[in-house]
Specification:
Blueprint (H helix, E strand, L loop, with lengths): L1 E2 L6 E5 L4 E7 L6 H8 L7 E5 L1 H13 L6 E4 L9 H13 L7 E6 L1 H13 L5 E6 L2 H7 L4 E6 L2 E8 L5 E4 L8 H18 L1 H9 L1 H5 L3 H21 L14 H10 L7 H19 L4 H13 L10 H7 L13 E6 L2 E5 L4 H19 L1
Parallel strand pairs: 3-10, 4-5, 4-6, 6-7
Antiparallel strand pairs: 1-2, 2-3, 8-9, 11-12
């Protein structure tokens, strides 16, 4: 599944419907035109970039310099509040006004929100055009840019409208991570902690032993973490492309995490931070069931906290529990929870009671209190 060259690992995502490369390494922004040309039958179509003002301010010159004909740029303001259907309609109108057609190519240059929106835009504009993911945050590089999930939020929950739509390729330039604020880097690393807990004990051990190098942004350490996280996800997506079974394990920590985001109005927490606390709650539920020992749960929680700090907040556990009902993984009114049975393995259960859920959330708040002291 993966080829690890010395300087530029390439991981092939192989699904029943499509195959595409995830290229990881430094300096990928410098030759985007050549890379995109190779993806589009040796002829570069009109290129449209979807990005945010801040990201374009950092990397726009470098991206544009790669192209002989400068790409048309469409902007998305930052924040989950703009990941909505109104934004999709505006972007579609802007593409039409600029003359985008079915041969056009979209480039998603930004974090997870930009990637999700661009992928969905590519799925619906003229019933489908091509796109490439160029993730600029760690969270997007290790998780959201891979696997073809795209979409936008509704008032009732995250990503309730969308489509499975894979990119032509993902170019994860490690160099761009150097401009990330420390908080963004740490939030993204929660998804790699998740990857280690659910399916990659070797990655888990690496994150434990190399936290100092990873947190100071060492390029080799980050390259390893990104490649290992992507490989884990690529392996899962190859087996279960559309989340009918195994792929549900990728949602570990997200059931409570998404509820925390909603409960805090998407203003208090970055996505990875909310997932970090969601993992703590899920681990407490797993320990309460006897699926893992208290010692195992403590080790996994310690790793999530090591890549914090995770922001504190306080509210009734019942409020968070109620918001888990809007999770899109629920089917037939049944809540699905991904719970670890050891480092590197999980089970998906459908019988978590309201009492168990509330207890897990209360235990999460107890851990939060201990950390704050």
């Amino acid at each position: 599944m993966a080829r690890y060259d010395k300087e530029m690992p390439t991981i092939q995502v192989k699904t029943p419907s499509v195959q595409y490369p995830v290229v990881i390494g430094p300096g990928l922004l410098k030759n985007l035109a050549a890379r995109c040309t190779a993806l589009t039958n040796k002829k570069l179509p009109r290129v449209f970039v979807v990005t945010s003002p801040a990201i374009w301010g950092l990397w726009g010159k470098q991206v544009s310099a790669s192209f002989k004909d400068k790409p048309t740029v469409l902007f998305i303001p930052p924040g989950e509040s703009h990941k909505r259907m109104g934004t999709m309609e505006r972007l579609c109108e802007e593409l039409a006004a600029a003359g985008a057609d079915r041969d056009s190519l979209l480039l998603a240059v930004g974090g997870g929100i930009v990637g999700d929106v661009t992928g969905f835009l590519a799925a619906i504009y003229m019933r489908g055009i091509r796109y490439v993911q160029i993730p600029t945050t760690l969270l997007a590089q290790v998780d959201s840019s891979v696997g073809g999930k795209t979409g936008v939020n509704l008032a009732r929950g995250k990503n309730l409208v969308g489509a499975f739509n894979h990119p032509l390729a993902v170019f994860a330039d490690i160099d761009v991570l150097g401009t990330l604020p420390p908080r963004e880097l740490r939030a993204g690393l929660q998804e790699s902690v998740k990857a280690g807990i659910i399916r990659d004990a070797k990655l888990f051990s690496y994150l434990e032993k190399n936290s100092a190098a990873v947190l100071r942004g060492d390029a080799a350490a980050l390259g390893y973490v990104v490649a290992a996280s992507v490989k884990m996800k690529a392996d899962v997506v190859a087996i279960d492309e559309r989340e009918s079974g195994l792929r549900m394990i990728l949602n570990f920590g997200h059931t409570v995490g998404h509820a925390i985001e909603a409960a805090t109005a998407y203003k208090k927490m970055l996505h990875g931070e909310a997932v970090g606390w969601g993992m703590v709650a899920a681990l407490m539920i797993a320990a309460g069931r006897g699926l893992i020992t208290a010692q195992e749960a403590g080790r996994m929680i310690a790793l999530a906290l090591a890549y914090g700090p995770l922001p504190e907040f306080r509210m009734p556990a019942k409020k968070i529990a109620a918001l888990t009902s809007g999770d899109k993984k629920n089917r037939g009114g049944v809540k699905r929870f991904v719970l670890p049975v050891k480092i590197g393995a999980t089970v998906t259960v459908t019988d978590v009671s309201e009492a168990e859920l509330l207890s897990g959330i209360e235990d999460m708040f107890a851990v939060m209190k201990q950390v704050a002291q």
